[in-house]
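A reminder from the course coordinator: this example appears on the midterm review sheet, so study it carefully.

Given structure:
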C-alpha cells in the first residue's frame, strides 16, 4: 500500500480540493492550485491543526500497540510537535489574542481531553491510512483522475468499522453538520472501494472551550450520494478547464485567506493561463 505522497505524484482529486472549489471559494482554489501563487502568510490554525493531528497519530499508534499514554506524555508530545510547526512556518500569523504559548497550552489540554474521552472498547485498526481510488459515474464510466486522501484513523467498535476524522473547532457543531458534509461522502466511497465493505464515519471534534470538550458525530452515506459526488467532480472539472473562478466574498474563510491581495486585484488583473489540475 502506497503513502499519501506516492499517490500525490500524479494528477488527482482530494476532498480538500473539491471542498475548496465548491464550498470555500473557487477563486481561492485557482490562486492556490492552478496559478500556484505564493501564500502571503500561514494561518496559525493550519499549523495548530497539523500539530494536533500528529499528536493524535502518535496517541493512536500507541493505543494500537496496547499501551495508554499518560496525560503528561500527551501534553509534552503536543508541545514538541507544535514547537516544530512554529519553527518551520516563517510566515505564521496568529489570530487576535493568540500567540505561540497560548496555542501550546490550548492544544495540550485539547489532547488530554481527547485521551480521556477515548473508548477503551474500541480497537484501532489503522492510523493515517492513505488511499487512491477510481471515480466511477452512474453510467459506469471511470474518470481520469483518482480520488486521493488519508483516513486519520479506523477503529472497530461493537462489530462495526468506523472511520475517525479528527477536527478542532472554535465552537460546537450545529446539529446536522456531519450529515451535510462532503467529506464523509468522499471517505466512505473510498473505504468501500479500498476494503470492500460498508463503514460509518465519525467526526471527533475538539471544541476549544475554556474547558475543552470532545464531540462525536457519526454519519453514513448512500449509493445515490456517492454518484452525486462523482457528478460534482465531473462538473468541477469542466468549470476549472473553462477557468470559471469567482470570489466568494461571504465565505467564512475570507478573513484568514492568504490570497487577499490578488483577490482584491482579481477584477483588474484577470489573466488566462494554462490550467493544470492540482490537488
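Designed residues:
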Amino acid at each position: 500500500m502506497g503513502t499519501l505522497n506516492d499517490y500525490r505524484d500524479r494528477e488527482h482529486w482530494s476532498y480538500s480540493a473539491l471542498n475548496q472549489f465548491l464550498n470555500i471559494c473557487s477563486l481561492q482554489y485557482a490562486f492556490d492550485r492552478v496559478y500556484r501563487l505564493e501564500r502571503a502568510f500561514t494561518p496559525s490554525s493550519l499549523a495548530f491543526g497539523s500539530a494536533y493531528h500528529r499528536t493524535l497519530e502518535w496517541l493512536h499508534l500507541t493505543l494500537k500497540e496496547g499501551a495508554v499514554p499518560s496525560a503528561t506524555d500527551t501534553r509534552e508530545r503536543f508541545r514538541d510537535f507544535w514547537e516544530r510547526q512554529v519553527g518551520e512556518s516563517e510566515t505564521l500569523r496568529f489570530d487576535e489574542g493568540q500567540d505561540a504559548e497560548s496555542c501550546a497550552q490550548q492544544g495540550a489540554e485539547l489532547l488530554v481531553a481527547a485521551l480521556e474521552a477515548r473508548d477503551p472498547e474500541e480497537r484501532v485498526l489503522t492510523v493515517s491510512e492513505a488511499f487512491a481510488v477510481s471515480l466511477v459515474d452512474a453510467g459506469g464510466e471511470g474518470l481520469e483522475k483518482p480520488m486521493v486522501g488519508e483516513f486519520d484513523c479506523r477503529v472497530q467498535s461493537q462489530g462495526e468499522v468506523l472511520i475517525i476524522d479528527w477536527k478542532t473547532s472554535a465552537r460546537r457543531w450545529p446539529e446536522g453538520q456531519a450529515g451535510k458534509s462532503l467529506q464523509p461522502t468522499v471517505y466512505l466511497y473510498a473505504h468501500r472501494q479500498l476494503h470492500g465493505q460498508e463503514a460509518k464515519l465519525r467526526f471527533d471534534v475538539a471544541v476549544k472551550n475554556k474547558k475543552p470538550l470532545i464531540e462525536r458525530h457519526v454519519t453514513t452515506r448512500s449509493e445515490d450520494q456517492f454518484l452525486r459526488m462523482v457528478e460534482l467532480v465531473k462538473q468541477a472539472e469542466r468549470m476549472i478547464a473553462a477557468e470559471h473562478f469567482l470570489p466568494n466574498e461571504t465565505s467564512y474563510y475570507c478573513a484568514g485567506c492568504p490570497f487577499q491581495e490578488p483577490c482584491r486585484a482579481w477584477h483588474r488583473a484577470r489573466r488566462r493561463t494554462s490550467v493544470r489540475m492540482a490537488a
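The first helix runs from residue 4 to 7. The beta strands are 42-43, 92-93, 123-133, 147-157, 160-169, 200-207, 213-219.
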